[in-house]
Amino acid sequence: MLNYAKNKKSFHPTPPQFLAIGFVVIILIGSFLLASPAANTNGHHLSYPNALFMSTSAVCVTGLSVLNVGADMTMFGQITLMLLIQIGGLGFTTMASLIAIVFRRRISFRERLILQEALNQSTLEGIVPLIKKVILYSLVIESFGALLFTARFMTEMPPLQAIYFGIFHSVSIFNNAGFDLFGMFPDRAASLMHYVRDPLINIVSMLLIIFGGLGFIVISDLITYRQNKRLTLHSKVVLTTSGILIVLGAVIIFIFEYTNSQTMQPLSLVDKIFGSLLQSVSSRSAGVSTVDTASLRQATQFVIVLLMFVGSAPGSTGGGIKVTTLAVLYGAVTAMIRGRQDVVLFRFRLDQERIHKAITFTLLSFFLIVIATMILATTENGPFLSILFEVTSAFATTGMSTGLSGGFTSFGKIFIIILMFVGRLGPVTLAFALTSQPEKEKFRRPEGRITIG
Question: What phi and psi values does residue 164 have, to the nearest 5 degrees?
């Protein structure tokens, strides 16, 4: 028996498996805390499915909610939610690395591999300095956001409450979570709708969302640009694609909603522009809104579904298939149309592995959303477009909602929980986590030909 125990192989999780297990553990811990009477204003235990939903939404920085966070949760519950958002946005591996750095513990090679997987890095080089930058940039940006929000909130609420609101919303918006506390005011609408005519709130929110969605590699490149006088290919692709999507999305939303009496028609031209820009920026990951999402025209909602599907940049706090994936797909289509063999972006040729990964990730994400939408359209009551909207929002960890998910059945809520988890981890990473290490092929099959098109 002793010899059997010695010979038995111990379980050593791969980096994708470690990430999946880690996220599950954090979500479960958060769910038990949020379910406790101390976290809820009625003093009773929150039903566990709802607590699990809220914890998953926070750790996966989604923002979908089955509760009124401002009215239904105590300060303990709200702070717990904020900490879960922070851990989920930066990644629990980054937080663990921070503790190791503080206590001057050496980060092992295996831990560096896990960090490499968590930050979507292709190499281990400079991974620990990058972690330090991630933590520093996050704290600095969130602090500036909190100060500006606090200054604005002090004009309408007591100083301590303004500081609390400033910190919570800065953390929530920068990490692209989208939770808000304004539900505690019975005379206010949800999210940032009360501030649709407030330029400061609009600008600060958009900057926090953009910085959170660009990714820490791009932020580092921008900070060191004055010294290096150049940007990496990754940063060029992220900045260019993000800029195009923001402007294009804002223009389309502006045109579609210009005469919508339930959203932007009553606003001035300047407010319409701000509203369109924030809606376009937020659609790709953050989930906050200054107009009623449920009142948007169906054409606008479908455009937002497409923006949510694309999402933000790799290594950021956002989700979706990522802007770099869209850029690679665009490059591949352009190369095919022009009859070129190589996919070229900014005069750099991309290797075939990157192209295959982009196609695989996009197709997996697309089929997952399609299948999930068909299932929930069968089990839940609601318009098909609204169900597609909720499913895409959950998978892309955006958090925008037409208000449908709060009325889902227990099955529907569990399904949305799974979608948020898969979306935060990534379908490819989850697939690697659920499968054993692939064996290298010992030989190649003969080449075959099929007709395309």
Answer: -60, -45
Model confidence, pTM: 0.85
Distance (Å, rounded) from C-alpha 108 to C-alpha 135? 19
Query: Alpha helices of 181-268 — where are they, by DSSP H?
Result: 199-214, 216-223, 225-228, 233-257
pLDDT tens per residue across span 142-177 = 999 999 999 999 999 899 999 999 999 999 999 888
Cα separations in angstroms, 320 against 220, 340, 437? 22, 29, 26
Which H or E element spans position 349? Answer: strand 348-349
Q: How many secondary structure helices (H) and strands (E) does the chain include?
A: 20, 2
Q: CA angle, 359 as apex, 91 and 282 as ends, to 5°?
A: 50
Positions in the chain short of pLDDT 70: 1-18, 91-130, 427-445, 447-453
Q: C-alpha distances in angstroms, 278 versus 204, 223, 263, 386, 421?
A: 10, 24, 13, 21, 26
SS3 382: coil
Contact 154, 166 (CB under 8 A): no
Yes or no: say if 258 and 269 are a contact pair by the CB < 8 Å rule. no
pLDDT given for residue 5 in this prediction = 47
Alpha-carbon distances of 170 from 5, 148, 178, 215, 323, rounded to whole Å? 51, 9, 10, 17, 24
Count other C-beta atoms under 10 Å from residue 21's C-beta: 12
Q: Which of 326, 312, 61, 15 is nearest to 172 (CA)?
A: 61
Instruction: Note the pLDDT of residue 8.
Output: 46
The full set of domain ranges for the chain reads 13-431
In order of 51, 153, 323, 328, 376, the CA distances from 399 in angstroms are 16, 24, 18, 26, 17
Rounded Cα distance between 289 and 108, Å, is: 42
One-letter amino acid of 263: T
Q: What is the pLDDT of residue 108?
A: 53
Contact 212, 246 (CB under 8 A): no
The angle that helices 15-35 and 48-59 make with each other, rounded to 10 degrees, is 130
Q: How far is residue 289's CA from residue 178's CA, in Å, rounded to a whole number?
A: 9
3-class DSSP state for residue 341?
A: coil
- State the amino acid at position 164 in one-letter form: Y
